[in-house]
Amino acid sequence: MITPDDAVVSPPLPDSPVHPTPAGVSPTLYNEDLAPTMRAGRTWRSYNIFALWANDVHSLGNYAFAIGLFALGLGGWQILVALGLGGLFLFLLLNLSGFMGEKTGVPFPVMSRISFGIRGAQVPALIRGAVAIAWFGIQTFLASVVFRVMIVAVFPGAKSLDANSILGLSTLGWIAFLILWVVQMVIVSYGMETIRKYEAFAGPVILLTMSALAIWMFIRAGGSIAWTTPASKTGVDMWLKIIGDAGLWVAIYGTFVLNFCDFTRSATSRIAIVRGNFFGIPINMLVFGAIVVVLAGAQYKINGKVIESPADIVATVPNTFLLVMACLALLILTVAVNLMANFVAPIYALTNLFPTKLNFRRAGVVSGVIGLIILPWNLYNSPAVITYFLGGLGAILGPLFGIIMADYWLIRRARVNVPDLYTTAPDGDYHYSSGVNPRAVIALIPTAGVALLLAFVPAFSSVSSFSWFIGAGLGAIVYLLVADRNREFTDVSGEAIAVPSKH
C-alpha cells in the first residue's frame, strides 16, 4: 500500500503547483490532472450536474435533430414520447458511468485502464478525444454563424466583410470564429473548476431564453400551434419511428455516457449524481421537447414551414436589442456545450498520452489549436467526413462502452485497485500483457466491425438507429465470453495517492 509518507517531490509541469508525486507510481501514468481526486473537498453537487444537462440538452444541434422529427412525420405528443424514452435510457446509462467516477475519482482515460490495460487504454481515450476535437471545431464554427448574425445586426456595414473567402471562410467569419475560439481557450485555461462555474451560470440563461422564445412564438401564432403536419405518421410506422428516434437520441449522447466520469470524479455522492441526472435528463428533456413542439408547431401554423434551428427564429426577431440578447444567449449556450462535451475529453486524452509533458491547461491549448487548424467549417461542409470519419469513430464508442461497463460492473463487481492504475510494475493488476488486455481487444475488433456495418451499409438501414445499442450489447456479451474469470479482484481506495479536487 502506498502511503503519503512514501511521497517524493518531482519537478512539476510548467504552470502547475508543486504537488508530491507518490512513490510507486509511474510518471508515465500519473500527474496532478490524472490522479484520483480526494473525497474531501469535492464540489460537483446535484445542481452542477443538472446544469451540465441544462446546457447540453438545449444545444443547437439537439434542437435541429428534434425539430427535424416534426418535419419527418412525428407530431407533438410523439416527439415528447420519443424524447422521454430516450431520456429514461440515458438516465440509467449515465448513472452507471457516473458512479464509476464518483467511486474512483479518476478521469476516463485512467478508467479505461481497468479493462484495456495501462497502455491499451490509449485506444478508447484517443478515439473519444479525436471525435471531440473535430466537434469542438465544428460547434465553434456553428456558433460563429450566430455571432455573425449578431454582428451584422449591430453593425450593418460589417456585411461587406462576409462576401469573400479565405480558406473557406469570409473575413467576418474568421473574426467571429477566432473571437469565440479565444473565449473558450481562456475559460479552459483556468481549469475544470472554472468550467463548472460557467456551466452553472449558463444553464439558467439558456432555459429562460428558450422558454421566452417559445412563449413569443406561441403568441405570434395566435395562442395555438400545429400539432402535426400532413406527412405525420400513424400506426405501426409511427411507433417504429418513435422507438427508432429514441435510439438515435441515446446515440447522440454515446460520446458523453463514455466519459461522464470526467465530471463525476468530483461529485460529492451517488445521490448527487442521481438527482442531477434525474432533473437534468428525463425531466429537462421533456421541457426541451415541449419547447421544440411549440417552436416548430407555431412556425408551421404561421407560414406552413418547418424551421431547422432556433437560430432561424432568432434571425427574424424584429427588435435589434432583443435579437442581440437572443444571439448572446445562443452563444453562451454553444460555448457551454462545447466546453463540456468537446473540450474536456481530448484534454484528458492528450494528458494521458503525454503526462510528463502536458497538464490540463497545456493540453487544452493543444486541443484548441488542433480544432482550429483542421478548418472545421470545411469538415462540416463535407458529408463524407461527417458520415464516414466522425460517424465511424462514433459507432465504435458503443462497443467500447459495453466492454468497459461489463468489465467494471459484471466481472469485477466494482472492485478496483486504484493505485495499481498508475504503476508499470509487471505484477500490477492492470499490466496484463505488456500493458494491454488482449481479451478487451479481442472483444472490441469484431464488435466494432459489426457496429460500422450497421451504421454504414444500406442493407441494415432499418436497424441503423439502434447501432449504438447493438454495438454496446455485443461488446458486453463478447467480452463476458472471453474475460478471465479466474483472476482475483481487490478493491483498494486511491486516497493515498489522491490530490485535492480542483476539477
Your description of this structure?
The protein is mainly alpha-helical and 503 residues long. The protein has a single domain (4-497), classed as Hydantoin permease. Helices cover 65% and strands 0% of the residues. The chain is built from 19 helices and no strands. Helix 6 (122-154) crosses helix 15 (360-373), helix 6 crosses helix 17 and helix 17 packs across helix 19 (467-482). The longest helix is centred in the middle third of the chain and has 34 residues, at 270-303. It is globular and about 70 Å long. The relative contact order is 0.19.
SSE blueprint:
Elements: H1 46-56, H2 60-71, H3 76-104, H4 108-111, H5 113-116, H6 122-154, H7 171-189, H8 192-220, H9 235-252, H10 254-259, H11 261-264, H12 270-303, H13 310-314, H14 320-353, H15 360-373, H16 376-380, H17 383-411, H18 438-456, H19 467-482
Helix pairs in contact: 1-8, 1-12, 2-12, 3-9, 3-12, 6-7, 6-14, 6-15, 6-17, 7-15, 8-12, 8-14, 14-15, 17-18, 17-19, 18-19
Q: Kindly report the average pLDDT value.
A: 89
Give the name of the CATH architecture: Orthogonal Bundle
The CATH H-level homologous superfamily = Hydantoin permease
Distance between the termini: 25 Å
Cα radius of gyration in angstroms:
23 Å
GO molecular function: nucleobase transmembrane transporter activity
Keywords: Membrane, Transmembrane, Transmembrane helix
InterPro entries: Pur-cyt_permease, Uracil/uridine/allantoin_perm
Membrane topology: Multi-pass membrane protein
